[in-house]
User: Which sequence fits this backbone?
């Protein structure tokens, strides 16, 4: 809904400005707080686990959860800059989490999460028929913010928050490129990348859009394959 309203304002105003960034972040935090309340009231523990080690974060888990949800939502939004890029990477990521969830029998309800992930994969692959280069339909904030939040939610509900770092590696790199560029410009009056996010840097280097998308998909696929091993067997 947040993404849809943002896109509606952009279309209505005929410019690229929807919600102010601060307002959008505030609304995202409110949505994440609601998710956090529902998550804990459903009997879930504020625990993160990796490599068989469980850590109870207590109320710090709230801040951690907010970071995961808001961060993943905006990371996919930032990556949505080339035809088929965000949709393809999202399909790969949800496919990986579908396999991880289906194979993680120690967490209740994971089969339902796996089905949810595979349904999204099917929808995204069908969307790519019209979104791959040259795109006839665009995702916009309506799709990217929702997909990012869904990806973070799946990681939290399936107790694979740290696995998300691997699965969403390309999204994270894209986000870091923006942060690094902003710090470099504001603090040092210089640029690290020709243009941020990172996919635009490769465009400035003269790469074809389709080649950039294929390379990012390949990296995303390799990271997801590694995450399946990490999430299921480790």
Assistant:
């Amino acid at each position: 809904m947040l993404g849809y309203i943002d896109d509606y304002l952009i279309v209505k105003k005929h410019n690229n400005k929807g919600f102010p960034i601060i307002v959008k972040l505030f609304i995202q935090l409110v949505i994440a707080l609601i998710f956090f309340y529902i998550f804990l009231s459903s009997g879930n523990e504020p625990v993160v686990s990796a490599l068989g080690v469980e850590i109870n974060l207590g109320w710090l888990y709230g801040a951690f959860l907010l970071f995961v949800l808001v961060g993943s939502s905006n990371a996919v939004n930032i990556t949505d800059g080339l035809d088929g890029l965000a949709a393809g990477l999202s399909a790969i990521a949800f496919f990986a989490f579908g396999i991880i969830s289906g194979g993680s029998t120690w967490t209740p309800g994971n089969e339902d999460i796996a089905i949810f992930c595979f349904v999204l994969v099917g929808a995204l692959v069908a969307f790519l028929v019209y979104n791959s280069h040259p795109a006839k339909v665009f995702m916009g904030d309506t799709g990217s913010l929702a997909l990012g939040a869904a990806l973070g939610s799946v990681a939290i509900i399936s107790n694979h928050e740290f696995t998300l770092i691997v699965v969403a590696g390309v999204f994270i790199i894209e986000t870091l490129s923006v942060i690094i560029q902003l710090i470099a410009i504001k603090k040092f009056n210089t640029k690290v990348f020709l243009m941020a996010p990172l996919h635009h840097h490769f465009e400035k280097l003269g790469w074809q859009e389709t080649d950039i998308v294929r390379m990012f998909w390949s990296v995303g696929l390799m990271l997801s394959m590694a995450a399946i091993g990490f999430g299921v067997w480790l």
The longest strand covers residues 47-50. The mean pLDDT is 89. Strands lie at 47-50, 53-56.
